[in-house]
Design brief:
4 strands, rod-shaped, two-stranded antiparallel sheet, two-stranded antiparallel ribbon, single chain, 63 residues
């Protein structure tokens, strides 16, 4: 079993763990619809950078 050679100080431990925290995803607003979505992902309406890139079923189309 691996055993550390010397004690890790709280300062050293904190410096190592400083980049391990979860960050909130970057959010963007779609210019065409005003909808918020993750950066570099299409919106729920199928828009990306102001253009319709994928057809999505309409919510009122239940036939």
């Amino acid at each position: 079993m691996a055993v550390q050679k010397s004690r890790v100080t709280p300062s050293r431990k904190g410096m190592r763990q400083s980049h391990d925290r979860l960050k909130a995803p970057a959010i963007s607003t779609e210019s065409a619809t005003g909808e918020t979505h993750r950066r570099h992902h299409i919106s729920a309406d199928g828009y990306y950078r102001g253009k319709k890139v994928i057809e999505t079923p309409d919510a009122g189309d239940n036939d």
